[in-house]
Amino acid sequence: MDVYSLPNVTEPHPPTALALQRVTPVLSYVAVFFSLTSFLWWCIQDYRFFKSLGVGGPSHDIFGWFKVHILVRPFTLAVRDTIWTGDYPDHGAHKDIMALPDRRGERPVILGIAPQRQFSQCPGQEMNSRVLALFSSFVHNNPNLLQQRLSVVEKHHSALFVHPGILAKPDNLPEIATIANGEMGHIHGDTSLHLYFSPADAKILIERGWAQRHRSARTQPWWFGGLKNMWGIGDTFLIVYAPRDQHELDVLCVLIKASIMFMTGEQEVVKS
């Protein structure tokens, strides 16, 4: 045979190369399987956590969970950033807010996005009733400024609203008063509250330990100018910790008054 016309013979692969060719696809399938299984397990546990927060805001089912924890969560504040105040102004707080002392002890445990709830340092039902009485007293003493009815945001708890007569003349009101349909805040079953404050008041209240941000209380959008205000929630929407005694209930009275003044365009407010 002519040496220049040798048959085309393929050099055999080393045994290790052949083994890798067979194993690699299997490993890929295994990796995908474990990734999907881990994600499914996380979804189940996260859904159980969502259900444990109770009713409020989004529907209390898998659709509410998917909306909040899958679609919205990437745009919300990280937990550590709920006590950050670097984007709030240093001046302009109400005098009564500036005079507040630091809250005693550690912050309570706050969990969730929507709903957002307090899981430690919770008072009994009697304190919840006293806070609701405080709501009613403010409305009774300021009938031209306030109304009390079911929360539009939470849908299951009592809330304070800017009176429609004030809301009809929005020129002197903060923008969020109109966006929030006049709702300035509401109470939860654990006796914590969500309230709006002026940016300067919000800074002091967070730094002195009385409150922290809602996870959607962003002053700047995220992801290339994406979402900022979730569900019409403004950047000074704070969760105020439940009062534990009469002293803290008195502080809450100061906080509610400051919230009313901000949301009604600095109207004079008669304390309860």
UniProtKB/TrEMBL annotation:
<feature type="domain" description="Luciferase">
    <location>
        <begin position="182"/>
        <end position="259"/>
    </location>
</feature>
<dbReference type="Pfam" id="PF17648">
    <property type="entry name" value="Luciferase"/>
</dbReference>
<dbReference type="InterPro" id="IPR048273">
    <property type="entry name" value="Luciferase"/>
</dbReference>
<keyword id="KW-1133">Transmembrane helix</keyword>
<protein>
    <recommendedName>
        <fullName>Luciferase domain-containing protein</fullName>
    </recommendedName>
</protein>
<feature type="transmembrane region" description="Helical">
    <location>
        <begin position="26"/>
        <end position="44"/>
    </location>
</feature>
<keyword id="KW-0472">Membrane</keyword>
<dbReference type="InterPro" id="IPR040841">
    <property type="entry name" value="Luciferase_dom"/>
</dbReference>
<keyword id="KW-0812">Transmembrane</keyword>
